[in-house]
Structures are given as C-alpha cells and as structure tokens.
Design brief:
The complex is a heterodimer of chains A (201) and B (466). Chain A is of the alpha/beta class and 201 residues long. Helix content of chain A is 33%, strand content 16%. The radius of gyration of chain A is 19 Å and the shape is globular. The model of chain A has no long low-confidence stretch (mean pLDDT 94). In chain B, strand 4, helix 3 and strand 5 form a beta-alpha-beta unit. Classes of the chains: A alpha/beta (201), B alpha/beta (466). The structure holds iron/sulfur cluster (SF4). Iron/sulfur cluster binds next to helix 12 of chain B.
Chain lengths: 201, 466
C-alpha cells in the first residue's frame, strides 16, 4: 500500500451532507474486476450530463480543482453501499485525504486500506476549511499525519484524531494481511479452542 | 463476572488476538461472497501466492449482476456482468469454496441464501463484502459488511482487524397496529435516529414488538441497521430462531444440535448490561410509512404530506431541497396522492416468502394500475415455494412479472432499471439518487404497501384495503 505521510495540496469543497457511495461511484462502474481506472467516473452523475459531457459547475470540473488532492465535504460522507470502488475511484482521481464532520463506518475503514486518510473534525472546523477550500487553487492545505495536524494557507492549525494502529499502517504503507499472518500461531490456537467448544461451526 | 450485552458475548467468544491499543483480530465463522466485491480480492490472493484459509466456512453466490428473466439460462448477455459472474465461477472452483451457481435452484440474494441454507447460526461472526450483511443479525449473529480489502483479509486469514463498537439498544415496546410491519419498524427507527444515528454502534433490537416478529420480519429489521449507520444489528435468538434453523441443510444435527442449543440459549444481554445509547419507540406509535426523499431517513407516515425544506435544520435544508427537486415533489403535497409508474417487490430486505405472502394477500383478485410491476423472489427456493402456495398465480393474474431470483431492481446493476423520472414503489432499502437507475425515483415501503400502490397507481395506505 502507498504510504501517507504529509500532503500539501488543493482542497475541493463539496458542501453536501450524506454523500453516499452510489454518488461517489455509480453502480454501472462496479462491473470491473480491477482496482484501477475508476477516477474518470468519480462522482459520475454529478460530473457528467446524459451525453457524457462535463457539467462545468461541478467542483471537480472547474479548472482550479482538477488537481485537487483533498476533499472537504459534509457529514456522513461515504454512507450506503460497502463498495471499495468508492475509495478506489477517489484515489485514482488523485485525492488522498477527505475531511468531513463524520464518515460512514465501512467507507472510513476502506480508506485506510487504500492509502487515503479520512479526517473527522467538528462541524465548525470543517466550516473553516470549507471556506478555505472555496478560495481555489491558491489556498493549499497541509495535512501532516505524523503530527496529526491540518494547516491552512493562513497558518491556522487544527489537530485531528486517528487510531494509532491505522496511523502506523498508513505511515509505513503496511499490508494488513502480512501483519495478521505474523499472528498465525494465535489464529491456529483460537481455531483449535473454538473448534472444540463449538464443533458445529 | 460483569454483565454483558449480546454483542459483548459474541465479541469475546471470537477474539483471536488483542493488541494493547484494543486493535483486535476477530475470528470469522462465515464468510459470504458475491461477484461484485470479490474479484479483486481473489486476484490479490493469487498475486501474493496465498490461499483461502477456511474454504469450508466460505460461501459464494452470484446475485447483484444476474438477469432475472427466464432467458438467463442461456447465459448473461451484458459482457461485463458475464465476466464478473464467470470470475466467481472460476474463483469458487479454484479455491474450493461452497458455491451456488446462477442456475442452481438454491441461488439467490446472498443474505437470503445464507439463512435459508442454515449457514447463519446464532452467536456466529458473519461477514460479506456487502453492507446488508447486517441482515444475519436477526439470528443473534454478529454480522456486518466489509470492503474488498477486508474480503481478501478474511479469505487469507479467516480473521478481521477490528475495534469494538459501542452498544446501542433500540427497544420497540408493545404491539404493532394492523397493517404495520417489520419494514415500517425499521424505516421508522431510521426516521427517528437519522442515517448517522447508529454510526459507531452495534444495535440490539429488542422489546415485545420485535419478539413477536417472525424470523423473516426480524431479518427485515436488521437488514436496514446499516441505513441507520450502525455496523450491525442484532436480535437475541429465541425459540422462533431455533425453530427456523432446525433441519436446514447446514444446521447442526443430533448431539451437535443439542450442544449448540445449550450455548445459543446463553446468548442474550444481561439485565444490568451497560448501554452507550438507548432508543425506545412505542410499537403503537408506528404507522405504515413511505420515504419521500433520497435518503432512508426521509420517512413519514403515509397519511402525511411532503415536508417543506425550511422545516429542517442545518445542512439538511439544502439536502431536502435537492431531494424534492430530484423526486419531482412539492411541499404540502399529500403522500397518498403521489402517482407511481412502477412497483418492485423483492431484495434482501423484503424478498422472502412472508413478504410475498403479504403482498399477494392484498393483490388477490385485483389488477395493477401501474405501467409495470415485478416480483423478484429472494432465492430460487422462495420462488419455488411461492409457486407451490399459489402466490405466483396471484401475482401473474394481477399483472405482475414473475421473475427469477437476484438483486434485480434494488440496485440496477442488471437489466432491471428505472428510466429517468420513472417513479417506483419499492420494497428495497435504498432510495439514493440513481439507485434504481439514473434519474429513477424511489419510494421505500413494505411489501403490503407496495402491493396496495400497485392496485391504485398511487402511494396508498394499505389499511384502506384491509
Ligand atoms: S438486494 Fe439490494 S441491498 Fe440486498 S444485497 Fe442485493 S443489491 Fe444489496
């Protein structure tokens, strides 16, 4: 997995609540058997009209946000279907960090498996960052995972919470499965014990 | 010993390893797999030279992509769908996992097939790369959706890296009024707590109204725990649960059954267990409901009117405006006067035999007044049973299409889709923009309510037809 340490980039504002994974990547793009190539269809139905032309008003179509690496959004981001295609599409577009007042659980977890940092902040702080993002390409936001801080172009600093294990994996770009396999002995022991206690499983 | 919730008990019984910071490896008893969220996971295994650790605990079935018309026996015409289903065929064979291919009579929606075949049992941990895995919580199993990376993790290690969620109790007291069903309970709870109300929690549903539900009804309730934001929903097992399970193909038998039963009977929340959040709703206060917007929390009794966006607070005002525009509705419009084009009865929320019975009860001897209506049984076995009980004939005579099993119009990844502006009364679980097809307008409701809407051509209070 790609590491995430520190990022300074353009933040795109998307001030909507309940952005669900169907909006992030509509189902017709779920028929792939690969993880890559979904970026062009990120937010497809908001981004393109029925004929496939770009809708100029949509934030990621605006010239100043085409290179956005951070997304600032409303509460309950990523709700709905568990599709990991949502973070794959976000990552493939080039976004590495999403900031919102709250996230749906599965989406939040899926981000970490793909080198994306989701940050939940109180609404007032997201409001400040939303304003900042609205300034366009001149206002670059810096996200520092090690220090757990977000710094605006004006130098205002917000700190954020992140689970220590998830942070470690993201900083080091660690593969979960390899880490778990190191605990094979514990899993073997558990399987034996549970198999004796609940043989019907 | 300190008192525990049901969630605590199942968690403790599956903890294979716990690090100092509380990061845990939870052992997984059942891993359900479908064609959409698994190809990249199997590919990952191959690339890293790993195998499936417990193929006997892994069960796969194609459901999301499969057409539900009878001609599917001749193969799937959409090329990408066919490739995904074929990938599952190959992966199931190559890794030696349990498999119900598309033309097996036991094929169906993964969350209907699991319980039906006796794979889902009380006290188990159940995962699937699908958010509606919460359905299996109806058996007192800890069941939740996971992403594809986690699917790969479970395939390789039979465990999941987890942190414990908080405990939330949702109690539905008393009795339900006539015409009110499990679907109305679960939608009303979401209307009450919001789509993020359960975030960070595992919900246990309890109370008299929940106890009196059938297993089918309980599955409907738990199915939509995810729409309420919760990781999982649970209902403590009881005699009804055991009765449902007994004799199913993969249920324990003989001495093992007795041993299992002894353990299952310990699976309840202790009286003085700690709850981080409690919600209580009176069963009598729940009415037959429908959704008017594009979020499952946009729920109102069928007797209500379309709300005005400025009656909402915070970011929700904008969302409501957008929802009304998308749905083509005006504030103050009576919900019961909204005309519909299409009726869809099916999905993992309401595609079980009891749901079909409830809809058929309303439709008996009547004709539909909508452009199209379809019933998609949740599995081939539900379909067969409905045919045997004469329900299929009632649907067909009323003018419904009688389909083969699959997810169908619940998510429109297959040929069953709404066209732009088409308005649908649906028994599924999501009314998001474009969920049932680009520009499609979805109103969620119970099977009986959907049947009533089919007969009148508008959203209808089913109580008028009882
Ligand atoms: S029926 Fe709908 S909600 Fe259920 S698994 Fe299929 S697509 Fe998902």
């Amino acid at each position: 997995m790609e590491k995430f340490e520190k990022l300074t980039g353009i933040a795109a504002p998307l001030p909507m609540v309940n952005i669900d994974t169907d909006m992030i990547i509509p189902k017709q793009f779920l028929k792939t058997i690969k993880r890559t190539g979904l970026g062009v269809n990120l937010f497809d139905e908001m981004r393109y009209d029925d004929d496939g032309n770009e809708i100029p008003d949509f934030v990621l179509n605006k010239p100043q946000y085409r290179e956005a690496e951070i997304l600032v959004a409303g509460a309950n981001f990523g709700c709905g279907s568990s599709r990991e295609h949502a973070p794959w599409a976000i990552k493939d577009f080039g976004i590495r960090c999403v900031i919102a007042p709250s996230f749906a659980d599965i989406f939040y977890n899926n981000c970490f498996k793909n080198g994306i940092l989701p940050i939940a902040l109180p609404q007032e702080q997201v409001d400040v960052l939303m304003k900042e993002a609205e300034k366009g390409a001149n206002a670059r936001i810096t996200v520092d995972l090690e220090a757990q801080t977000i710094t605006t172009s004006d130098g205002e600093v917000f700190s954020f919470e992140v689970d220590s294990f998830k942070k470690h994996c993201l900083l080091e770009g660690l593969d979960d499965i390899a880490l778990t396999m190191e605990k094979a002995a514990a899993i073997d022991a558990f399987e034996e014990k549970a198999g004796a206690a609940r043989p019907w499983v | 010993m300190s008192p525990k919730t049901l969630y605590d008990k199942i968690w403790d019984a599956h903890l294979a390893h716990e690090a100092e910071d509380g990061t845990s490896l939870l052992y997984i008893d059942r891993h359900l797999v479908h064609e959409v969220t698994s190809p990249q996971a199997f590919e990952g295994l191959r690339l890293s030279g790993r195998t499936v650790r417990a193929p006997d605990k892994t069960i796969a079935v194609p459901d999301h992509n499969v057409p539900t018309t009878p001609d599917r026996v001749n193969g799937i015409t959409n090329e990408e769908s066919r490739i995904q289903v074929e990938a599952l065929d190959t992966n199931a064979k190559e890794f030696g996992i349990n498999y119900y291919p598309v033309n097996d009579v036991r094929q169906g929606i993964v969350h209907i097939v699991g319980p039906e075949q006796g794979w889902t049992l009380p006290g188990m941990t159940v995962v699937c790369g699908d958010s509606h895995t919460a359905t299996h919580g109806a058996f007192g199993a800890l069941a939740h959706g996971i992403g594809t990376s986690e699917v790969e993790h479970v395939l390789a290690t039979q465990t999941l890296i987890q942190k414990k969620s908080k405990n939330m109790k949702v109690e539905i007291t008393g009795e339900l009024a006539p015409g009110v069903t499990a679907k109305d309970i679960t939608l009303s709870v979401i209307g009450h707590t919001g789509t993020a109300g359960g975030t960070g929690y595992v919900i246990e549903y309890c109370g008299e109204a929940i106890r009196s539900l059938s297993m089918e009804g309980r599955m409907t309730v738990c199915n939509m725990a995810i729409e309420g934001g919760a990781r999982a929903g649970l209902i403590a097992p009881d005699e009804k649960t055991f009765e449902y399970i007994k004799g199913r193909p993969h249920a324990p038998k003989g001495a093992q059954w007795e041993a299992a039963l002894t353990w299952w009977k310990t699976l309840y929340s202790d009286d003085d267990a700690h709850w981080d959040k409690v919600v209580t709703i009176k069963g009598e206060d729940i009415a037959p409901v429908v959704t008017w917007g594009t979020s499952p929390e946009d729920v109102l009794p069928i007797t209500a009117e379309v709300p005005a966006p400025d009656t909402f607070k915070g970011g929700k005002t904008e969302a409501a405006k957008r929802a009304l525009e998308y749905m083509g509705l005006k504030p103050g419009q009576k919900l019961s006067e909204i005309e519909i084009d299409t009726v869809f009865i099916g999905s993992c929320t309401n595609g079980r035999i009891e749901d079909l019975r409830a809809a058929a009860e309303i439709l008996k001897g009547k004709k539909i007044a909508v452009k199209r209506a379809m019933v998609v049984p949740g599995s081939g076995l539900v379909r067969a049973q409905a045919e045997e009980e004469g329900l299929a004939d009632i649907f067909k005579e009323a003018g419904f299409e009688w389909r083969l099993a699959g997810c169908s119009m619940c998510l429109a990844m297959n040929p069953d889709q709404l066209s732009p502006g088409e308005r649908c009364a649906a028994t599924s679980n999501r009314n998001f923009e474009g969920r049932q097809g680009r520009g499609g307008r979805t109103h969620l409701m119970s099977p009986a309510m959907a049947a009533a809407a089919a007969v009148t051509g508008r959203l209808t209070d089913v109580r008028e037809m009882m």
